[in-house]
Amino acid sequence: MEEQGVTPAEVIQEEEAAQEPERPSKDLLEKTWDFFASVPVAVVLIFVIAAASVAGSLIPQEGMYGDWRPPQDFYPWKYGPVWGNFLFKTGMTRMYTSWWFMTMLFMLGASLVVCSLERFIPLWRAVQRPNPTPPESFVKHLKNRFEVPVSDKAKPLAALAGALKARRYTVIEKDGRLYADKGRWGRWGPYILHIGLILVLAGAMMRAIPGAYMDQFLWVRDGEIAKVPGADWYVRNDQFRVEMYDSGMPKSYETDAVVIDGGAEVAKKTIAMNIPLAHKSVELYQSSYKRELGKATVALVERQGGKTVGTFEMNLVQPEAMYTVGDYKVKVKDYFPDFAIENNKPVSRSSEIQNPGVVLDVITPDGKSYANWYFVLYPQMEFDNTTPIKLQTVDMAETYTTGLKVKKDLGIPVIYLGLLITSLGACLTFYLAHKRFWALVEGGKVVVGGWANRNQGGFQTDMALLAKKLDPSTAAKFDLMMEGEER
Q1: How far apart are CA 336 and CA 378, in angstroms?
Q2: Left if phi > 0, otherwise alpha if psi is -120 to 50, otherwise beta: which for 346?
Q3: Which of 100, 130, 148, 223 is found 20 to 30 A from 325 (Cα to Cα)?
């Protein structure tokens, strides 16, 4: 009597399940191996890595943008506080060195290794240790096959062996049977391609090694010497030049640069677009430029009578501590290249010369000192207009600052080697077919069967030419379809 709520079909299923032997559960190592051996997993990883790479090319990466703000301030300023902080905290602003991107590269490399190892041994046996005497039924049922009469009863396979050797086939004769093949490297093409891809991934993952990768931005004013980030040498900007179109847009720009290493000038080169300067695995690329105030001609004027005592030239990049003008001395006490007031205190908003403000003392011939402020762009602004001397701006000169991209990537040679090997593997995979023949003698005829892993049309043509060479008087007939099963 059936239990209430249980159908006969369910009872049968339970009985069948009870009769089936329990499969041993896989341990963690086997499950991990199966996970990385899965082709869908590799496809998903490739898709995610490709999508992340596209995002990394669209989002300016840290050290590559031409702005003075630090990354934690630049991205909220550019994309807004929500998206900017999200991009920065998730590492999308340093995409190619982030831990999660490196993890995906490692997982893809592991998948390629596991997939290759799992299929390597069976393929090695099939290709490098072929069976020249498979069952006769296998040869007879190959869809690419033909039969020709035996021409030499003493050596029935000699003519076939000679014809195949003339076509550069490797021929093996055993127990009255024949096996021949060529193009074995075509079967190893996918694995060579995998090796190349693994090298490319290894080269990309080298960016996570400290000191192996760098992508920074460096501003160097005309005549200035700056230390190259992440390197032990310096670069001097002797002169920056820019050529303009009639519309005022820049046409081309370049920098006369000098490498200073160990206190000596070791190299000179003009850095231009796509013409970098390379030294000790670091490359400097011309990336940008900017114009800013460089020097100001300042006049010292007596407040009563307006007599000009004299003039001096102030370097706005780095003013001197003291200037002498006739019998007067001007002492620079503090300097703010981009003056602003924050919390009732003078500060410089940046290192750029946007609104230079100078705190100075003017020392008269009789030794008296008068403190005051001097604003180069707004000399009429004074905090104390009772001093006997005031300063006026007579002239201003601009200076150029070159923007250089500093690149270092020790993984590039590894990536190039990987791409070369990948190209070789792709050529072997798609252009070199593995062609195989099996032959046996039966009833005064030589039965020949063939198989190729690709280019079936070319292989069928080869078989037709081979058949006609062995028996010119007979129109050889054989199936034009490949069986598709590897033996």
Answers
A1: 14
A2: beta
A3: 223
Topology given in CATH for the domain delimited by 130-183+433-470? TATA-Binding Protein (3.30.310)
Which residues sit opposite 394 in a β-bridge?
none
Question: The dihedral of CA 64, 65, 66, 71: what is its sign?
Answer: negative
CB 446 within 8 A of CB 223: no
Phi and psi at 460, nearest 5°, equal -65, -35
Say what angle helices 456-470 and 158-166 make with each other, to 10 degrees: 130
DSSP 8-class letter at 450: E
Among the residue ranges 111-120, 144-153, 286-295, the one predicted with the least confidence is 111-120
Distance from C-alpha of 255 to C-alpha of 365, rounded to nearest angstrom: 45
Q: Which of 200, 21, 142 is nearest to 487 (CA)?
A: 142
- pLDDT, the chain, mean: 85
Query: Which residues neighbour 345 within 8 Å (Cβ) at sequence distance 6 or greater?
Result: none
Beta strands in 185-337 (DSSP E): 213-221, 225-227, 234-244, 250-261, 264-272, 277-279, 282-302, 308-315, 322-325, 328-336
What is the percent of the chain with per-residue pLDDT over 70, rounded to a whole number? 91
Residue limits of CATH 3.30.310.80 in the chain: 130-183+433-470
DSSP codes of every residue in 42-91: HHHHHHHHHHHHHHHHHSPPTTTS--SS-HHHHHHHHH-HHHHHHHHHTT
Which segments of 129-184 does DSSP mark as H helices, in order?
A: 136-140, 158-166
Q: What are phi and psi of 344, to 5 degrees?
A: 65, 25
| CA gap 151, 75 in Å, rounded | 83
Residue 73's φ and ψ, nearest 5 degrees, are: -105, -30
How sure is the predictor about 479, in pLDDT bands with cuts at 50, 70 and 90?
Answer: very low
Nearest Cα to Cα of residue 329 among 357, 369, 301, 358: 369
pLDDT band at 23 (very low <50, low <70, confident <90, very high): low
**pLDDT, tens digit, for every residue of 166-213?**
999 999 999 889 999 999 898 888 889 989 988 998 888 888 788 888
Tokens 């001395």 -> residue: 329
**Where residue 95 falls among pLDDT bands split at 50, 70, 90?**
confident
Q: Note the pLDDT tens digit of each residue in 340-398.
A: 988 889 999 888 888 999 999 999 998 899 998 999 999 988 888 888 889 999 999 88
Q: What is the per-residue DSSP string for 268-290? A: EEEEETTB-EEETTEEEEEEEEE
